[in-house]
Amino acid sequence: MSDSSDARGAQSVRLFLQRWGILRRMLKTYHGSCHCGAVKFEADIDLAQPTYRCNCSICARNRFWAAVIPPARFRLLEGRTNLQQYLFNSMRNEHRFCRTCGVRPFGLGETPDNHEVVGVNIGCLEDATPEELAAAPITYCDGKHDNWQNPPAIVSYL
After folding, report:
1. Average confidence (pLDDT) over 81-99
2. What domains does the chain contain, in order, with CATH numbers?
3. Which residues sit opposite 32 in a β-bridge?
4. d(CA 79, CA 59)
5. I need a labelling partner for 101 at 20 to 30 A (CA). Which of 12, 15, 21, 158 fits?
6. pLDDT tens string 6-46
7. Strand locations in the chain, DSSP E?
8. What whole-number distance in Å separates Cα of residue 89 and Cα of residue 136?
C-alpha cells in the first residue's frame, strides 16, 4: 500500500471515529489579527486536524497556511471595514486582506461538496504556540494544476 493510500485510510478512520463521537475534537479558541492589528478575529480550531498548504498562484505568493473551519467557528471582532476582497480565477473563493498592512488573515470559500468554510491563516494566530504549530499536520494541495486531492511533486518550499 502506498503512503498516500495509508494517509487516506487513516483520515477515513479518523472521520468515522469523530462522526460517532469516539474521537473528540480538541477545539481551542485562538485569537488572531493582521500585522497592523486593524483586523482582529477569534477562531475555534483543532490544530491536530489537517491544515493546508497549496501551490496555487495566490497561496504560493503569500505563503498562506490555512486551518479550514466552518463559519460558525469564526468570529470577526474588529476591522470589517478595513478588509479588502480579492477574487480571481473561479471567482468563488473570497481572499480577504487588510487594506492597511496587506496581510491576509482569512478567506471564505466552499468545499467541493458546496459547504461554506473559512480558511484561517495560521500565521495570523497570536496565541498558537511554536509546539502547536510544529505538530500541526499539513496536507499539501496541487492547486497550480487543479489537482486539489493530490500533493505537488515538491512540497518543501510550501
Report:
1. 85
2. 25-145 (2.170.150.70)
3. 41, 125
4. 22
5. 158
6. 555 555 555 554 554 544 568 999 999 999 999 999 999 99
7. 28-33, 40-45, 51-54, 65-69, 74-78, 83-86, 94-98, 106-110, 116-121, 138-141
8. 29
